């Protein structure tokens, strides 16, 4: 189901307003401070406007045009420039905060170009060049970090009262792969091979697998059919599935041997141990598809006796919905660990946790930093991962 028209109009309106404001500010704080003569000043302003236009076009047009060599190339260039924009914007903000601090503490006006003590204007111009050059270097480094096959991150998860039969039970988790314009089958295949090398008891995919329709991406998710584990592969939807046709993806993944859990559970018998695996749709799914509203109670309804319960939920904040339902461990993603500095420091404004194993209320939550990436093919300060979770017995709660 496509995004409702009103939501799309509101989103595009907000996006264009923000883009216009950022474009004007960067033109002032990048080109304006350089004090370039004509015609270079005008060309510089045009370059900033064109830069923002390229980013916006690359985010919108590929979705309208559908997947293809041309739209994919546009998306790659645009998203790389989005990463560059992020670093430049951050650099300019930090630089101007430093200049404002100088104004406040020294009494010498420095923020406005052409004002202040001799040498301050030169330093301002030099900092502009350094910000752009440094941002280009960070994009290059971040591109390399994002495009490599993710490393395996092993985390031991202590669960009180876990029986010996489930001690050492391993779960391989993929999350936020974002198969789409810049991630295709040639990138996904080595990931699948690395997961298979783990010989895990269970493989789970915790949402945001795709950015595009089944028609466009079916051949690029095909490697998932070769995932191997003792108890199979399970999937829950993330928010991006609802921009890409969630019902169609749920049906298609089932044909690949990937079982969706849509407010459902399954009991896995592991020797003498009994692990209940449940899954709910994305936290915000009902905004686009009301029938997919997450319901932990429904997911666990009629569940048989078990020794431990693991819940798959794309967003960490779904843990609030799981409180009081007897869930021992929730596996989530969504945050990408922030993906690139400094945004990991702002994720907590929406989510109760950013990455790793933490406790929220009465259950443990493991938040993956993501296997792929969204938008900029760039990772700085938040490496991607294939998560390997090992359940361990811990003393029962008193």
3D architecture notes:
The chain is of the alpha/beta class and 398 residues long. It folds into two domains: 5-145, no CATH class; 150-394, Purple Acid Phosphatase, chain A, domain 2 (4-Layer Sandwich). The protein contains nine helices and twelve strands. The strands form two sheets. A six-stranded mixed β-sheet has the order 1-12-2-3-4-5. A six-stranded mixed β-sheet has the order 6-7-8-9-11-10. β8, α9 and β9 (329-332) form a beta-alpha-beta unit. The protein is elongated. 42% of the residues are buried. Mean pLDDT is 88; it is low at 111-118.
Write the layout of secondary structure elements.
Elements: H1 5-34, H2 40-65, H3 69-106, H4 120-147, E1 151-160, E2 170-174, H5 185-197, E3 202-206, H6 214-221, E4 233-236, H7 246-255, E5 258-260, E6 264-270, E7 273-279, H8 296-300, E8 308-312, H9 319-322, E9 329-332, E10 356-360, E11 363-367, E12 385-394
Parallel strand pairs: 1-12, 2-3, 3-4, 4-5, 7-8, 8-9, 9-11
Antiparallel strand pairs: 2-12, 6-7, 10-11
